[in-house]
Write a structure and sequence with these properties.
- By secondary structure, this protein is mostly helical.
- It is built from 20 helices and no strands.
- Helix 2 packs antiparallel against helix 7 and helix 12 runs antiparallel to helix 19.
Length: 446
């Protein structure tokens, strides 16, 4: 795991600063690397959103039972768990760029396995491979972008990358209303196929190079990333000094060192923040949106198109505001949105079950889904990745069965979790706006 990557990256000057920097020809190496990262985030979103608009057509064409489709929907998260177990070790062993190669090849294989599946086992295998790749890239994406971005652009770069995940989900939602599920899978492979040739030209992370003893290449790569006329000696010196400091500590306990007392607070914050959205129903909304729409009388086409538009607008707004309001404020707003979305969904099902306000129930259900965040944030380490993956699997697999048990009760459970999450963030999560990585680390250490 990259020691310099904090749970909450420090925000940048503004999103417009990032766009201005991207237009600067002297930083085209960074632009290309950022483009690869953004395309990877878009591919990530396409995979997350795929099962929602395709549920009924896949079940019909392959004659799947609810249990069969629950396995298909949730096996992605089984892959996430496997990917989270190896993400830190793999990226440290072979490097950031070679790991991007691995994840995108798995993406492509997974998509084609789904597109040409004639039996449920191949469908599940494709989804499992995609899950493993997501489990790795959910850690790798933020790490790579954080390690190559200039300090003043780090926050905006990460936020813009996360925005593309939401865009990927939204695009698949919209396309799923007009494109057959097999064709949609083929279209989903395009972002990864576009990334592969670009990987020959993107630079390796200078921090990884320093970590593996390739000090002579650090300044050369930084010059490519910052521009040939930039003085990178101070930045290179900082990276090398920090790396040497970590080596001198002589702590080789690896994963176990996370459980030292000084990391207890940061580990708790990270695990809870990454698990809360999943336990609050994120996987249920993301994977089974069509079931929610159909059950409340909403046209799935109207629902998916409306949701995709609202989510893209919300993602753009969040990216712009991250530097103005700070990350803690946006976390609180996001958690409040989850709470209201779950509550509104529970109310809509309650009204439908009791035959009250039946004409307004679909409208309430549609509003509840569109205000509920469907983007997935990257984890900053193996432990957080595991927490996200395991909690996601629990909800993804059990959602259909909970839905059959009690639609209202299911979303009241999610409402309770998101309400607790709001209180947790308000009381314990500090603001990180305007702070360096070292200052952020001090906030979480005792």
């Amino acid at each position: 795991m990259a020691e310099e990557v904090s749970l909450l990256s420090s925000p940048s000057e503004s999103s417009t600063s990032l766009l201005s920097e991207i237009s600067n020809a002297s930083t085209r190496a960074f632009v290309l690397a950022f483009t690869v990262g953004s395309c990877g985030a878009f591919a990530f979103g396409c995979i997350i959103g795929y099962s929602a608009p395709t549920q009924s057509s896949i079940m019909k064409d392959l004659n799947l039972s609810i249990a069969d489709y629950s396995l298909f929907g949730s096996i992605l998260t089984v892959g996430l768990i496997l990917g989270a177990l190896i993400c830190g070790k793999l990226t440290d062993l072979v490097g950031r760029v070679y790991t991007i190669w691995i994840t995108n090849i798995l993406f492509v294989i997974g998509w084609f396995a789904i597109a040409f599946a004639k039996a449920v086992w191949l469908l599940d295998l494709g989804r499992l491979l995609q899950g493993i790749s997501i489990g790795i890239s959910a850690y790798l994406g933020p790490v790579y972008i954080t390690e190559i971005a200039p300090r003043k652009l780090r926050g905006a770069a990460c936020s813009m990358s996360q925005l593309f995940t939401g865009v990927g989900i939204s695009v698949v939602y919209a396309l799923g209303t007009v494109v057959a599920w097999r064709n949609l899978a083929i279209l989903g492979s395009i972002p990864s196929l576009m990334i592969l040739p670009l990987l020959f030209f993107i630079p390796e992370s200078p921090r990884w190079l320093a970590k593996v003893g390739r000090e002579k290449e650090v300044e050369e790569i930084l010059s490519r990333l910052r521009g040939e006329n930039s003085d990178v000696s101070d930045e290179a010196g900082e990276i090398l000094a920090y790396t040497e400091h970590v080596k001198q500590q002589g702590d080789d306990r690896g994963f176990l060192k996370l459980f030292q007392r000084k990391y207890a607070f940061s580990l708790t914050i990270g695990v809870v923040l990454i698990a809360l959205p999943q336990l609050g129903g994120l996987s249920g909304y993301s994977f089974y949106t069509e079931s929610i729409f159909i059950s409340t009388g909403v046209s799935s086409d109207v629902g998916f198109i409306s949701t995709s538009i609202v989510q893209m607008l919300a993602g753009v707004l969040g990216t712009v505001l991250v530097d103005v309001s700070g990350r803690r404020s946006l976390l609180l707003v996001s958690q409040a949105g989850m709470f209201l979305g779950c509550l509104a969904t529970a109310i809509s099902f309650f009204l439908k079950e009791n035959h009250c306000w039946e004409t307004g129930t679909p409208i309430l259900a549609l509003i509840s889904v569109t205000i509920y965040p469907v983007d997935v944030k990257g984890a900053a380490g193996t432990m957080c990745g595991l927490a996200s993956s395991i909690s996601s699997w629990l909800i993804a697999y059990s959602f259909s069965f909970l839905f059959q048990w009690s639609t209202t009760g299911t979303f009241l459970m999610f409402t309770t979790v998101t309400g607790i999450g709001f209180v947790f963030i308000a009381k314990l999560v500090p603001e990180t706006r305007g702070k360096s990585l070292e200052e952020i680390q001090s906030l979480f250490s005792f």
